[in-house]
Write a structure and sequence with these properties.
Blueprint: H1 2-6, H2 10-26, H3 33-58, H4 66-82, H5 88-113, H6 117-136, E1 141-142, H7 149-155, E2 157-160, E3 163-166, H8 167-184, H9 187-197, H10 199-204, H11 209-235, E4 237-238, H12 246-256, H13 268-287, H14 295-318
Antiparallel strand pairs: 1-4, 2-3
Amino acid sequence: MITFLKKPQAASLVILIVLLAAFAIAAPTFFSARNVSNMLAFMPELGLIALAMCLLLTAGEFDLSVGAVFGFVPCVVMILAQGGYLPIGAALPAGLALALAIGAVNGLIVTKIGISSFLVTLSMLLIVRGTALYVTQGFPLSSWNEPGPLVTALAGSFQAGPFRIYASALWFLGLAALAGYALNRAQISNWISAIGSNRAAAVARGVPADAVKIGLFMATSAVAGFAGMISAFRINNANQNSGTEYELEVIAMVVVGGTALTGGRGTILGTIVGVIMLRAIRNGIVMIGVPALAYSIFVGAIILGMLILHAGLRRFGGRF
């Protein structure tokens, strides 16, 4: 038991079990097929970004522009496709290429100029969000409503017994497996952890720190754009304001899951637990009747309480 508590994701898992039990008691329909299906519809979209953010945080950086990219890429793709500039099959890669470029700019400025990722990505958030507002003139765009293999692959769904499973959940599981391999099995896993723990020492040992960080910034931005397209197809709407404040929620998911905000330690399993936890909180407090105007108060208070409890459990485990 003590060995289990020493693991970074252990406290998160304990807290998740307690929360789910509390919501199940307070709201008997919390685990109903309909409610679980509703949670599964939205959870993977933020979860995809959280998985990429986990890798970036482990390397000692973070990206505040992911929420803006989440809203921006679908707008660009829909303008290209609906305006007749590109077919949808080419517009989507073009949008993702733009997301990769945004990530590359973030990474290059952070690594080559030496400005903190907080300031760089905060500035990029404003640039990308402002560009989205400008190109759409402030009006949401109807998403691609023509059925086809692309829409089905990104936003399709199927019944699994009483539950409705969305394609985004399969993308989430696939990326979780890939991120887990990258963080725990592949050669790059040692590089990522070493860079986050002590960049100077990692460079001295021959680790290509700048290239790794730039690659992680690009991957995080691309995943954010991809998640935005999944959301746009699912709700049939591309809104330039989509993803507002997602960056903070994603970072909370990752940190609550046990990844160190200062870098050097990351856990994909903990991130998955954190994703489920925050989505369950948002869903559960609505079901127990929290007033709409007090919604953010309760979410913030619960997250803060979880972080304190998380730290306490890890300190307790560290004594043994």
